[in-house]
């Protein structure tokens, strides 16, 4: 038992144990690599619109500080707890190391359903959370970003709150800001563009022609919607999408640009069509070429894994697949090509890194420069993962995590143990 124990943290531990065994990491070296360096829980009180006071619990976990500042998103969701945030921080570490960023992993969150707050309450809570975090974060300590339930506006409030306390603008304290407040071009689209780019690479390996391919996307937030749009623009027929309000299925292909417009104006897929309605519980087992889980953790368990009927599984979400499901997918690896989460959704943090660098230098890039460099980083990581998986005869997740864990371990060993 640790302070983090819970289903999501346990999953991060099990995944790590598989890799630690694969890399023959001695037992006594494991906790130093796995356990988070710092965790903080804060109470965030706000005035509700009705004059009452409400208190929300907030968290931030910094996994390791060996390679530079920690980096990771902030999640606003009713289900958020310390263990989930810790697991997500650990995954950020393997992800940043895999794509070669000078960061450790972090994650934060508030246990709140953001749609239950008015805009004024959301601003008050966002600002109070950042204010409570001031002693623990900084542009060279820990840099926040968006995640589920947060967006560019919330990042702007975080940046403004931190800056007001410093007496000067510190744009580099968070990434994923609006371009008008020191954000970079291409950050909002970066994760979805990255997912679609890696799907194209996987399709090349399998010699799948995208103009003949079908896709199913679970989750229609920033990641799912942009991925669906990018795939659609690459000629893929996106046959089903879903979000927390329901699913839509059209074997002849959905009108993705219309759906993206609908979701942007209404906030979800709800109300788009009753005719196309489909059972969201069935979406992952639809036959398709490309399956993109881009919603929450642990949606692919052993039962679902046995019933997947896709050729490419591109994990847009963090932690969508349980370790039990991995055992099945490992056996099905000739049938299903996995683009594991820490690679698949890493375009977001890669472009966050570019935003941080631009803010530090006060020198901003054109969008095509951002995209070119993003794809260059993703191509290199994709190549390293696929080469290692072929060389060692392992599943892509094992290869990707092995690279990430090995790099963190190497940096820790080189720096040595203080004091
Ligand atoms: N929340 C995103 C992730 O899970 C982005 C993190 C970042 O940009 O720092 O990768």
On the 0 to 100 scale, the average pLDDT is 98
SS summary, helix count: 14
What is the annotated CATH architecture of the largest domain?
3-Layer(aba) Sandwich
- Indicate the CATH topology of the largest domain: Rossmann fold
How many strands appear in the DSSP assignment? Answer: 12
Structural category: alpha/beta
Uncertain runs with pLDDT below 50, 5 residues or more?
Answer: none
In percent terms, what proportion of residues is strand? 15-25%
Compute the number of structural domains.
Answer: 2
Q: Give the distinct bound molecules.
A: glutamic acid
Bin the helical content: 40-55%
| Approximate shape | globular
Return Rg in Å: 20 Å
Order of helices and strands: HHEEEHEHEHHEHEEHEEHEHEHHHH
Task: Please list the strands of the largest sheet in the order they lie side by side.
Answer: 9-8-7-6-10-11-12
By CATH reckoning, the class of the largest domain would read Alpha Beta
Largest sheet descriptor:
7 strands, mixed
- Separation, N- and C-terminal Cα atoms: 27 Å
CATH H-tier superfamily of the largest domain: Leucine Dehydrogenase, chain A, domain 1
